[in-house]
Amino acid sequence: MSLTRQSFLRLSGLSFVAACARKLRSAVAPARWGMVVDVAQCLKQPNCTKCIAACNQAHNIPSIPDPRREVRWIWKDSFQHGFGIEDDYAQISAAPLMLLCNHCDNPPCVRVCPTQATWKREDGIVAMDWHRCIGCRYCMAACPYGSRSFNWMDPRPYIRTVNPEFPTRTKGVVEKCNLCSERLVAGQPPACVEACPEKALVFGNLADPHSAIRELLRTRRAVRRKPELGTRPQVFYIV
Amino acid sequence: MRDRAIIWSGLAMFLLFATFPFWHNLSAAVTSKGPNPVLPANARQCVAPVEYMKTSHMTLLLDWREQVVRQGRREFTAFNGQRYNMSLTSTCLEQCHSSGKAQFCDRCHDYAAASVPCWDCHVDFKSTLRSAK
User: Fold this and answer.
1) What mean pLDDT, rounded, does chain B reach?
2) Considering only alpha carbons, which residue of chain B is nearest residue A117?
3) Which of residues 23-62 of B touch A (CB under 8 A)?
4) Percentage of residues in chain A having pLDDT higher than 70
5) pLDDT tens digit string along B60-69?
6) Which helix (H) or strand (E) holds B117?
7) Which of B65, B90, B128 sits opposite A162 (nearest CB)?
């Protein structure tokens, strides 16, 4: 079958329009940000805390020594604590892993907030408006993952180097991971993802079936924290 | 006439108390001329006309807050077409009022006895960075 000049032009025009439409759709369709933690990759450097340091620096998180008053956005705890699985014989139960806000699809913290200081954005990030937080800590009680911290005191004296690009918080407000929404606006990945030397944290658009994060979730076995609660976390762990 | 000392000292004390607002203001260096904010050295135009900023800067800042925090929009187009990043620290302070909030914001707020919580969280290069250990 020979291709006439006319049908060739028509075909190439059509494919150009189709390619544009696809580009446009992915640009217009809201992203659904999520993260994958590759535990085995993370364990290659057991004492590494670079992601925590990068987060602390980017968001002016105070280093308060008292564990009852500490503020944390991303932190390290054992698999057993993170997943609540009592398995005495599995080697993994003692392994440390990175925990952070899950940016749940069905976030219980959002439901209980009396001032709507926390809400789920269109791109799935569970955001906070610290102007509006009255410090009632309902969200802390509602979050089954311990992802939220309360400022029991003025955090400023405990911030080592202040990043002027980001506000500090004040006494009496709750705070948590914002998935670096201020960096996403500038087209940068989250600070923890960028800082990880083993590329154990993979960030991406879960709504895009061709994204690297979806590819990872398709090919590897991933679990989420406490799925039985129906919060649908968007942070996945490859174990 | 034996109470003359008591009467005069009582009168003096009354005068002292009655004129308290005047000499208190004098000692605090508040004059009838009003506050004297330090204007930016190298910027001539604010993000809105001066008259609007004088009366309604709080409304503008609340609107910025709504835009940035809730809508995720960061660019502000001013009345003269100039574009700004909506940021109290990076735009207002860093670009123009580089002498810090103490030289600009506080002058009027102190004068009007208006205490604003903005700087509890937002970073002022001059004062916040010094207080951080």
Assistant:
1) 88
2) B70
3) none
4) 96
5) 999 999 999 9
6) none
7) B128
- Residues of A within 8 A of B116 (CB-CB) are none
Q: What is the pTM of this model?
A: 0.81
Asked if B90 lies within 8 A of A167 by C-beta distance, the reply is no
B116 and B109 Cβ atoms separated by less than 8 Å? yes
User: Nearest residue on chain A to B87, judged by CA atoms?
Assistant: A165
pLDDT value, residue A145:
95
Strand partners, B84: B76
- Listed by number, the residues of chain B in 51-110 with a beta carbon closer than 8 Å to a beta carbon of chain A are 65, 69-70, 72, 74, 89-90, 94
Smallest CA–CA distance from B68 into chain A, residue: A182
pLDDT in tens, A51-81: 999 999 999 999 999 999 999 999 999 888 8
| Cβ-based contacts under 8 A for chains A and B | 46
Task: Identify the CATH assignment for A28-238 out of 3.50.50.60, 3.40.630.30, 3.40.1190.20, 3.30.70.20.
Answer: 3.30.70.20
A164 touches chain B (CB under 8 A): yes
Which of B73-77's residues contact partners 24+ apart within 8 Å by CB, and which partners? Answer: B74/A185, B76/B47
- For A138-161, the three-class secondary structure string (H helix, E strand, C coil) is HHHHHCCCCCCEECCCCCHHHCCC
Count of C-beta atoms within a 10 Å radius of residue B72: 16
pLDDT of residue A113: 97
Which amino acid is present at A233? P
Per-residue DSSP letter, A94: G
d(CA B87, CA B93) in angstroms, rounded, equals 9
B116 C-beta neighbours (distance < 10 Å), count: 12
- Chain A CA closest to residue B124: A164
Taking contacts as CB-CB distances below 8 angstroms, the residues of chain A near B128 are 156, 162, 168
